[in-house]
Amino acid sequence: MIDTHSHLFEDEFKDDLLECIERCKANNVNQILLVGFSFETNDKAQALAKEYDIFYPTAGLHPSEAASTYLDDFNKLVDFINNNKIYAIGECGLDYHWTKENIEYQKALFKLQCELAIKLDLPIIVHSRDAQQDTFDIIKGYNGKLKGVMHCYSGSLELAKEYVKLGFYVSLGGPVTFKNANEPKRVAKEIDINRLLIETDSPFLAPHPYRGKRNESSYVKLVLEEIANIRGISVEELDKITTENAKRLFKI
Ligand SMILES: [Zn+2]
Questions:
Q1: pTM of the model
Q2: d(CA 123, CA 96)
């Protein structure tokens, strides 16, 4: 298995990261994308990836980082990417949940990262919260030239299919295991299996039965098991397909 989205550089893991990695290996989780979202975390992802070969680092600027300084911030990100090996740009995107005051900066910063991803032929990892339509409009604007993944996808099945048409992958995380998660379960059942990825978003969004607790990458197995159960296929088969999908998208 590959956990395509984690933040194991966070403080939540400072005391037992090694044990977490051991639990991953024991559960056949052998590759983990370490997703940066700020200058500090982009650095941390690089540092950890140099230390442990299970990790594949990314770099990006989250919409919560979007401010009037976005152009300078973007140029600093370009410098960083020119000097460090990364497997994707992101996470980046739009988040109207916490604030709508910086919407214009969010959009501008997101578009710059999309254009950089096209230029560097890297996939993009997209965060979208309470901003479904605007996120889709921006991605659609690149006419299929932009490749990437909708991380911890929580939108409708219909929209997910539109993303697939544009060449995107859809990633499901812990919420698909929640009892009341009707739409994520529909997506899990119906989406093109060759465009499906699994993730944890550790330390956030732990799957059932750990809901509300710290999430960790070995729990991606619970996400895989839930989706296999929903689709009525074996865990082994779904593991094989989602692993191939992740390898194809991230070139790992
Ligand atoms: Zn994340």
A1: 0.97
A2: 23
CATH of 2-250, one of 3.30.465.10, 3.10.25.10, 3.40.190.10, 3.20.20.140: 3.20.20.140
CA of 5 to the centre of ligand 1 (A): 6
**Distance between CA 6 and CA 121 in Å, rounded?**
22
**Cβ count within 10 A of residue 173:** 29
Q: What is the distance in A from the centroid of ligand 1 to the CA of 6?
A: 6
User: Mean pLDDT per 10-residue run, the chain (252 residues)?
Assistant: 98 97 98 98 98 98 95 98 98 94 96 98 98 97 97 96 98 97 97 98 97 97 98 98 98 97
What separation in Å is there between the alpha carbon of 238 and the centre of ligand 1? Answer: 23
Ligand 1 centroid, distance to 189 Cα (angstroms): 23
